[in-house]
Each structure stands twice: as structure tokens, then as C-alpha cells.
């Protein structure tokens, strides 16, 4: 006769192993690949929760269902191997989805910042390693900008590609160091007073956010922050250095 205690013991061990795996993936997601606010902007949080469901629930539950201490050792090993393979395949698919959704760059693009994920980058283009813009596997998102077109023909070609859904921000041959666009960023960014005027309900939230980062509204500017899946964020910028200092989930596209 099967022992519930035996099933619980084995599934508990499986659960403990799954917790360790989940902690490592959580660190990778929330501390390395998708630091705030990227796990909200680039689907990292949603994908992680799906992985968590598979890792902490499905695996141990399957172990509890199939484990039978009355079976021969060879049969028990086979059952556990099948469960492990199923869980591994599910985890591998989830991790692949994370890698594809991983934000590689926050690109200054004309009048906004755009988050570019690994799946969006045009891989046939040069990796731009010579310019120090490569993003290694263990790197978080990097802030970069775009170069100016070399001539009118290149500009028109870029415009055509943008109309076809391939903006310059996803094309490595257009990437440039962020510092190169510092003056342009500061010239197109908006004063916080403009945001207060058109988003009065967010005034207290903005004030507290800036205060927590050691800034007053007079010392920062802001621009919209977008991604392929999200248009509802803004980024605050230091007025002197153009460094990105804080983020808020506020619609930055304002029609006057």
C-alpha cells in the first residue's frame, strides 16, 4: 500500500530543489536582466511568474502523483526521470523566453527613450563591439543613443525601414554612445512643471519619487519611455549630466 508520507517526503525534496532554482532565476531576472522598471516594461515579471508556477507547483505535484515507493527502483528512477525531463523542458522554454525578452538597451530616439529587447535587435547587423556597445550575457540594460544619418539617401532608407516596423533603435549600425547625444537629449526633454500641468493627479507621486532619489523638480527633465509592448512610462533625466535617474508609470505623450 502506498504511503502518503513517502510521497510527501519525496515531493518536499523536489520542492526544496525547485525553490533554490527559483531563487536563482529571480536574482537573474530582477537584479541583472530586468532591474526596475524593466521587468514591468518588458514582460520579465509575467514570464517569471509563469516559470515560478511550473517550477514550484507543476514539478513537485507531478512527483507527488507518480511516486510510488512500492515500485521497483528501476521504475521509480524512470518515473522521476520523466518528471525531471518535463520540468527541465518547461524551465528551458521559460528561460529562453526570458532571454528573448531581455532588455539590452535603452535607446534615445528623437524625442523619447525606447527599450530594445534581444528579440528585436537586427542580428544581421554588426554587433558594434568596436564602439564598446556590446551587451554581454550578464549585463543589464545599457543606455545608448543613435547617430545622425550620413546623407539624405541613408535618411530616406532609414525612414522607409521605420515605416516597415524596423526603427533605427533596433539596428546596431545606427547605435552610438549616449554621451554623443547629451545636448540633444537636454534640448528636447521637458520641464517637470509641464508634467504637473497636464498630469496634476501625479504631482505628489512625482514629488516623492524625485525626493527619494535626492532631486527636486527644478533639477530634472523628463521624456517618454516606450517599448514594443508598453507606451505608458516616463524617465526623469538629470538636467546637468543627462543621466537617467528615475522612472514612473505615467503616460508621457501629452496633447496640448
Provide an overview of this structure:
With 256 residues, this protein is α+β, with helices and mostly antiparallel strands. 48% of the residues lie in helices and 16% in strands. The protein has helices spanning 4-33, 38-41, 44-66, 73-101, 152-163, 182-188, 192-198, 203-212, and strands spanning 103-109, 112-117, 142-146, 175-177, 190-191, 220-226, 233-238, 244-248. Strands 1, 2, 3, 4, 5, 6, 7 and 8 form an 8-stranded mixed beta sheet that branches. β6 and β7 (233-238) form a beta hairpin. α3 runs antiparallel to α4 (73-101). The mean pLDDT is 89.
Provide a compact summary of the structure.
This protein is an alpha+beta fold. It has helices at residues 4-33, 38-41, 44-66, 73-101, 152-163, 182-188, 192-198, 203-212, and strands at 103-109, 112-117, 142-146, 175-177, 190-191, 220-226, 233-238, 244-248. The protein folds into 3 domains: 4-101, no CATH class; 117-178, no CATH class; 189-256, no CATH class.
Distance between the termini: 75 Å
Shape estimate = elongated
Order of helical and strand elements: HHHHEEEHEHEHHEEE
- Which structural class is indicated by helix and strand composition? alpha+beta
**Number of beta-strand segments:** 8
- Give the C-alpha Rg: 24 Å
Strand content: 15-25%
Mean pLDDT: 89
Amino acid at each position: 500500500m502506498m504511503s502518503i508520507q513517502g510521497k510527501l517526503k519525496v515531493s518536499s525534496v523536489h520542492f526544496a530543489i525547485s525553490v533554490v532554482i527559483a531563487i536563482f532565476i529571480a536574482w537573474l531576472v530582477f537584479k541583472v536582466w530586468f532591474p526596475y522598471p524593466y521587468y514591468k516594461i518588458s514582460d520579465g515579471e509575467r514570464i517569471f511568474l509563469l516559470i515560478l508556477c511550473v517550477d514550484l507547483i507543476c514539478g513537485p505535484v507531478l512527483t507527488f502523483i507518480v511516486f510510488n515507493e512500492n515500485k521497483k527502483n528501476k521504475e521509480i528512477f524512470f518515473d522521476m526521470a520523466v518528471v525531471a525531463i518535463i520540468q527541465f523542458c518547461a524551465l528551458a522554454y521559460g528561460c529562453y523566453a526570458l532571454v528573448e525578452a531581455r532588455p539590452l538597451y535603452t535607446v534615445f530616439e528623437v524625442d523619447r527613450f525606447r527599450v530594445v529587447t534581444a528579440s528585436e535587435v537586427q542580428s544581421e547587423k554588426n554587433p558594434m563591439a568596436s564602439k564598446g556597445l556590446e551587451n554581454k550575457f550578464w549585463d543589464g540594460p545599457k543606455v545608448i543613443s543613435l547617430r545622425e544619418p550620413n546623407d539624405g539617401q541613408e535618411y530616406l532608407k532609414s525612414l522607409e525601414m521605420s515605416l516597415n516596423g524596423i526603427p533605427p533603435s533596433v539596428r546596431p549600425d545606427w547605435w552610438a554612445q549616449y554621451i554623443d547625444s547629451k545636448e540633444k537629449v537636454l534640448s528636447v526633454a521637458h520641464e517637470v512643471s509641464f508634467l504637473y500641468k497636464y498630469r496634476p493627479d501625479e504631482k505628489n507621486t512625482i514629488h516623492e519619487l524625485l525626493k527619494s532619489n535626492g532631486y527636486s523638480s527644478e533639477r530634472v527633465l523628463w521624456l517618454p519611455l516606450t517599448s514594443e509592448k508598453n507606451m505608458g512610462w516616463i524617465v526623469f533625466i538629470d538636467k546637468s549630466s543627462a543621466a537617467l535617474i528615475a522612472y514612473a508609470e505615467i503616460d508621457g505623450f501629452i496633447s496640448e
